[in-house]
Fold these 2 entries.
Entry 1:
Amino acid sequence: MTKLKNDLFLRACKGKSVEYTPTWIMRQAGRYLPEYRAIRKKADFITMCKTPELAAEVTIQPVDLIGVDAAIIFSDILVIPEAMGMRLEMIESKGPKLYNPIRSMDDVNKLKEIDPTKDLKYVLDAVSLTKRELNGRVPLIGFAGSPWTLMTYMVEGGGSKSFSEIKKFIYNKPKAAHMLLDKIADSVADYLSAKIEAGANAVQIFDTWGGLLSPADFEEFSLAYIQKVISQIKRKDEPVIVFAKGVHYKLNKLANCGADVIGLDWTMELGKVRSKIGNKVALQGNLDPTVLYGDNDKIKKEAIKVLKSFGKHNGHIFNLGHGILPDVPPENAKYLVDVVKEESKKFHVK
Amino acid sequence: MTKLKNDLFLRACKGKSVEYTPTWIMRQAGRYLPEYRAIRKKADFITMCKTPELAAEVTIQPVDLIGVDAAIIFSDILVIPEAMGMRLEMIESKGPKLYNPIRSMDDVNKLKEIDPTKDLKYVLDAVSLTKRELNGRVPLIGFAGSPWTLMTYMVEGGGSKSFSEIKKFIYNKPKAAHMLLDKIADSVADYLSAKIEAGANAVQIFDTWGGLLSPADFEEFSLAYIQKVISQIKRKDEPVIVFAKGVHYKLNKLANCGADVIGLDWTMELGKVRSKIGNKVALQGNLDPTVLYGDNDKIKKEAIKVLKSFGKHNGHIFNLGHGILPDVPPENAKYLVDVVKEESKKFHVK
């Protein structure tokens, strides 16, 4: 195995000392990069996910172009529902569509258990290929959606504004909901284990829709299954990151779910969260993604604010509080990474 | 002036003792009611807003049909941008559109200062007419959008998913943004003062998009102007409610902004918020609106949870944590109001 030349990200995940705060950016392999759009022109989104060469290429682009301290494998959280038997389509400028959404216990029973080494071999191949091509430059992150977030898509049949179908499902068919969450949790755990086996140095669980739930519902329908996933992942020392957007409540419980790192959106103050939950987990985040619409002065000022809020401690991975937006100028993303590298050194003086 | 037969809502807003916890429901005059849809069939949304007889009729419907303890005048927050000179259209199943969105200081300068007694006379007429027809049964609430929320619509030109235009505007043209917020704040204050003069017993400021902002930006671009509005409203004893969706941070500052009541969304726990900010304001909320998709047992259980979370104190107005959804069965809304009336009595025993 190639030794990592830059392991700052992994050290920060474990709360160890670093020379500067490592940065990666959610959706860093994405539409804001002209180099990404050039490939996207030749292949549709799902084809890109399913072609290891293309996935590896766009995964590595931000390492070369933006200078991030970690790569995250290009893929989509909905490959799991597809592998479980649902038909997936990405509709241009509209978003994902899952046909025949799940609405009953019968629908749940029809979903198959996945074997990632067969059903999602293309992702594992992309991970191995990317690792080879990265050649130890930076760590590679694998990811999956949380059971709650995947179930939301599977029941809504795609994105939603009011999320009425998923709420009807959990309130009126709680048994089927728990059965489905359980089934998804097993698939997610197997999938993340296989990604680590294929070479991922860390994994992130995206709970994009956790914040839709009331605090009690979040514990019952989301957190419990994130815990289940984490407890089942086969790993050595690979860190697990949980990003639960909008989950400003239950931070203490989230910090105790087994994750090494909690990702925070931009509505939370890192310093306040840190003093609330202590040092038991590292924190990842959390610049408002729209700050990258500003000029360099604004970006620098706001990046320093985030660093200051966290303070002179170990255990911070710099990131945006949500995915980078498609119309952000790439030079602004690069400037952010540069500025964090430079300015964060002051926060890591021995 | 007709004496109010049911003033529980006003007493609760002031933290006074009540026999039971009063309830009203955001968007209670809305599409979930077949009686509303019958009128909406005959007139489009904007015509309904501009015809006092129709506005009064749908405002009173939930008082008769659902049994709420307060009415809220049927209208829309975007009547202010329209009165300031923007062309407004409601596009069926798509939402509001404001033509020629604001993008520069020039655009801001072109907006006119409103005189509510002329430019928004139709709303004031609707308020007076509704008051007459309510004949003291329950109090009548007037409302407006917060300056930040109105500016968001005015700059985006309608709703948005990424809110990139408004963020570009505040980060790259902060002077124009503050000028616009100032101008809107004056209009909102004049408008709410005129509504009180016309007979509104209370007013609510909706900061629907406050939660898009980082904590520091929320203070600078939203809270400061909510404070300005409240300080300028001409009122005697009429309570002011601020509902800032997603603003889980800065609750202490929000509680000190001059409002009598803070409305909370369903991701916050009333009891926790109360013990954090104390008794200086009443709290309104905050049942997850999707609970109304559940059966009676579920609705009752969750309503009691909200009552228990607030506890045996004065100063609670029961409401949903956001607007009622259009596909909720009206009988579920009625059941909720009945159950709160009955169950909350135990929380108000002397």
Entry 2:
Amino acid sequence: MLRLRRHHYPDHHRRILLRLFHHSTFHPQPLDLPLCHPTYQIWSANTSLGKTLVSAGLSSSFLLSPASSANKKFVYLKPIQTGYPHDSDSRFLFTKLPSLSLRRKFPSFLILSNSILFSSLFAAKSFLSSRDLPFQPEKFNSEMYDLNFREENRISGEEDSSVSELVCKTLFAWEEAVSPHLAAERESGGVVGDSKVIETLGKCLRDGLESEIERGKREILCIVETAGGVASPGPSGSLQCDLPFRLPGILVGDGRLGGISGTISAYESLKLRGYDVVAVVFEDHGLVNEVPLMSYLRNRVPVLVLPPLPQDSSNDLMEWFDESHNVFDSLKNIMLLAYSERIQRLCDMPKRAGELFWWPFTQHKLVPEEAVTVIDSRCGENFSVYQDQKNKFIGQQFDACASWWTQGPDATLQIELARDMGYTAARFGHVMFPENVYEPALECAELLLQGVGKGWASRAYFSDNGSTAIEIALKMAFRKFSFDHDVLVDFLGKDTTEKCVELKVLALKGSYHGDTLGAMEAQAPSPYTGFLQQPWYSGRGLFLDPPTVFMYNSKWILSLPELLYSEIVEHKDIIVHAAGGMHMVDPLFQRILVKECQNHKIPVIFDEVFTGFWRLGVETTADLLGCVPDIACYGKLLTGGVIPLAATLATNAVFDSFVGDSKLKALLHGHSYSAHALGCAAAAKSIKWFKDPQTNHNIIPERRILRELWDLDLIQQISSHRTVQRVVALGTLCAIELQAAGCNAGYGSLYAASLLKKLREDGVYMRPLGNVIYLMCGPCSSPEVCSQLLLKLYQRLEEFDKVEEKLKSC
Amino acid sequence: MLRLRRHHYPDHHRRILLRLFHHSTFHPQPLDLPLCHPTYQIWSANTSLGKTLVSAGLSSSFLLSPASSANKKFVYLKPIQTGYPHDSDSRFLFTKLPSLSLRRKFPSFLILSNSILFSSLFAAKSFLSSRDLPFQPEKFNSEMYDLNFREENRISGEEDSSVSELVCKTLFAWEEAVSPHLAAERESGGVVGDSKVIETLGKCLRDGLESEIERGKREILCIVETAGGVASPGPSGSLQCDLPFRLPGILVGDGRLGGISGTISAYESLKLRGYDVVAVVFEDHGLVNEVPLMSYLRNRVPVLVLPPLPQDSSNDLMEWFDESHNVFDSLKNIMLLAYSERIQRLCDMPKRAGELFWWPFTQHKLVPEEAVTVIDSRCGENFSVYQDQKNKFIGQQFDACASWWTQGPDATLQIELARDMGYTAARFGHVMFPENVYEPALECAELLLQGVGKGWASRAYFSDNGSTAIEIALKMAFRKFSFDHDVLVDFLGKDTTEKCVELKVLALKGSYHGDTLGAMEAQAPSPYTGFLQQPWYSGRGLFLDPPTVFMYNSKWILSLPELLYSEIVEHKDIIVHAAGGMHMVDPLFQRILVKECQNHKIPVIFDEVFTGFWRLGVETTADLLGCVPDIACYGKLLTGGVIPLAATLATNAVFDSFVGDSKLKALLHGHSYSAHALGCAAAAKSIKWFKDPQTNHNIIPERRILRELWDLDLIQQISSHRTVQRVVALGTLCAIELQAAGCNAGYGSLYAASLLKKLREDGVYMRPLGNVIYLMCGPCSSPEVCSQLLLKLYQRLEEFDKVEEKLKSC
């Protein structure tokens, strides 16, 4: 479909094309962000709308306000600068503020500095020659020159006024005044990747903070000014709004003709990436653009209007800054207030949560306020966690629970899904399903039946979660069994409410299929099923004790229990018993059981709610078992892990047992949001994304499996560790049972708590299933990240071992 | 928080402000769109990027292509034109095409016309004087002048070539070259509302279609060119992208510095409103902007680059058009292909759906392909339905099923929710809930406990749908009852899997609480619960036959059944039995029952899944009953009707019965997407929106109820109709039971089918519950729309009556 008319651009631009496409799914790790003072990102709807004027105005309002006598520090960071050294936004602030200070009645005592860290060779040479400084070849490393130049200035103010400080920094600079991705490509071969920018910015944000905190109260305001518009590419080609800073923002809008549209669209691009915008500000062009903007924003975000800039480009803007002073004061106050409200909210959240929430599977008495995790956002596999220790900050933790086994998207897919969720909500909202068809539901059904259901399933039945998918599957299986075994001779002639025969499921001990009563009845008695939890539970099954497979002491072990075998009525199956403690059931055993059931016309249900969609390294575990079911249930990763949706797939024979002349013969089960458009759209996007080698680099295309994510050596080492009883590592899952006895074992055990607490400090968010712990990643997670997780775990196991030894010896 | 610096704009702009805010939640009805030929909307990332050049290029490629000899018609519509008559985009096409035609080797025989329909007084006077035409005061009506001017031109082409036609129309024009909302305010007092624009555009789109279809095959391409950028305000102040046209679009991007960002943001604003964009095209400025754009779009949308325009503004562009010819040919082919693919897909959808879907509550044998509704999109309360009768079109139907009783948003809220869904998916994706807190979940819990739970509830337990909310409520109630009645003396000392006592619920006959086994057990035997549907169902309750209330023959009737009363163990309650046939249970009866239960320490559950959140005109039916429960369940409208989420609220006393030292005492029930961020964000937005008189004009603030939506006279008339047995009209619900006997009555009945088929033709989408039919609107629906629905229903009842009479007499 692509028809590109190639015009007059030079050949080296082709390289950008290739590079951009190659890196299109790469996403750098987000960075830790200090929260002990406000930090804002300045965005703009387009180039040249005055971001730097806003930064300068804010610095003036913050540092030169006569009312405040406190020591203050304003930090201005410009991560990406093109047109350097002719254009230098950090230098603009550095040179403007003294003049502004001198115009005050009571000028402050000011220390000002301006630094430039790295630049391209061209920019470095221009800069050095303009300053009469020598070029030092040893400072030219991997295509960037380590300028590390700093200039300083001091303004003596009133005797009794305190010292305030302006710190300006340009992080990376290029000479040509074009978009950073072009300048970087032309001048430095594209070596400045997103990780480099984020790492350097992180360092600058943390720079000197320790000493600031020790020094005591100094009010700080920090500004990070972006380049170009919100979705302008940075030096790597990634859009700036796609970089995982996620600082609160100020949007500099457009007051010109057409500027309403540009401002609203830029605002929406930021929102679509999870950014909070606390104010919109723009230069007046006499078109009253603030009116429609305020209407659009419904007064929830303030809109501020700056006076028109003088037409004369030689004007020193001093009068304009004077005239704008009130606006900048207002803007600064909005920013400071929004910051303090945010901190207050984050601080209060654990307490409020403990008071209002009723968490599932949680004994509230065992969760003190300090154990509650405040999650400010997530980006791909990482949580951004609010932490309030020595100082406040947002730290990163790898979500090794894969958000309760559902999580799949990397950061790129997450943003794509966000756009799809917006589109689908706008286009379809929710549409009732029966007798209707709409694109997301149809596409999702097609992908399910061509994918996990390929070769056996012919119908897709949608519901909301794994439990309901199982309840539906049971109803299908009951009918099919009754149909095949003449339990129901005439569907309409007799009273169908009469009990004909007692139906039971054949299932595996230790399995778990959900918490609604029907799903519970299909599992063996356990702590989840007692009278205390659900007095109606009776356990309507024959429950087999299956052989399991695991690694211990670097070797794979097959554990054979005493087999129970009796008359079977129906069968439920799952290759990994997840909630039951991550046991891997012997696939051969399962295959034989499935075949035997099908020989007796007993419908077989695969519960793939947990195991489906690459959780175990394949799209469907039918591929691992080498056999297919009559009915199968899907959920969790089905939508990529952003929104609930479940599907029960069935063969045509199962479907046929519900077809007839009466509505009463139909499957009278449904949920109002059946096949809801958002869920189906998320599923359609994720199913395609996970199996496409272009978007999921873990896919081995010819074999339709994921490459190994868990390093075998490390897994063997862990399995040989003295604290470890067994390891199961398959696909995205690595589960470890710790050696434990007595009350340390089992679901109620708190044995692993201290170990996991330490791992949180390492940036790994895990939760135990009693004495079983696990690491879970997404289908797109990189093996490198997985190895880091295993290493961290191994190190903490060593420590854990020593502590346990000490406890035993006491 | 709003700090607006008011600068130098004149006072009359204030009026715009007020008007915009006043109309901020008004949304016009979407229009029927013909689909028998392709129609595209041309959007632009900013003003002056060349939308009209693209339109002209397309018209030339479509009409002047030598390859095709068929008769062709190109329709160009410009709904909104400012700067008129100096600027007239439709006239640009009208005057350019002849010159372009003459440059061809084989010019076509062309008929061209250009019309202007309405203009402001200023624009009319300028236009008339430029043409030496008289001003006719009688044509000046409600601030707009009915110009209705048409000019024509003919180009003689080759003898044997067929006649092609270019039709250009400007719909509304103003003189000043500013944004339409300003021009309209200044020149015509803002009288051109959205409805007027949409209605006129609809007329132009349908204009002459009948005769075209009769005349036979003439290839037609229609273009609707917007004004300014995608989010530029139209004459009413509404953003152009917010008007419910929802035609597929072409985006004219920006090739300049900063243009990547503007183009991406504009694209995202369109997606956020459910628009499909089939191509991006822009003028080359030598900056290779197509490379990052293609990367962003992942090759799913083609990007085309036009050669740079000549700098000289007097240039007649003939050479530029020649040079661009290939690009326009490609663009035209993309548009024609996308159209035919779309039509093919829409045509195939009913068949595909019938083959792949397994619809809930549906006997597939009774749903022929032609009965399947193809829903192309929804906008507020309306479905856009693909229809393929005499000719193909997208028609509008009011969704009177409120999409299975969940639907709430008007079109404005739907777009707000779309943006919130995008933001929340980007910021949080999904975050596991236990022991965690994140903003959407906390805000949602706060709003629930301050709203429907106010005065009694202290905890919010989240799940995915009504069924699971009920299963959770039952588990809570069992525990509380056991706790209060010493059924469990020691939670940890004894084997908790042992059955202590048989617990039953006290519930009402005819009630329905969902389709999972636990929820089913709490309802009386019915067609849903027989062996055929769920062999495990036993009906674990005492089921009372309650008194009900309804209107018949213009009078309210209280229907008293024989009351059953026996020892009670627990109680479930609901004010309207929805799925059971829309029976309204006597509130006094319910209040007394609740009080009696609570006197006996029997926990009371309110099932508000259907009735909550304004469905019955109040936020919680506790207000109607005058008593509060111990536990209550919410779902459906909780999220405004876009995404599944449920909540079970409970008192502190209920919560306390789960608190202890062991995890095993906690409520061990949960779903992986518990309190998922998207659902909570949708709920938080909707809860606030529905109860705020600023956003929901139906709210009577001081009484916290909705105004009457159903006209009493009409309801009385319907209740007196000879086909009607009873009517229940309350809040957003109007249910009607038709007189029916024998197999015409009951859930399996198809009695109402013919009636509802007729109503679909009237644009009302309804589904029956046997011989009960209902109209359901949203909490923000206007009483005017509701009255129209009642009128249409009444008319069809008259007809139905006659047919039934005839059948009986046969």
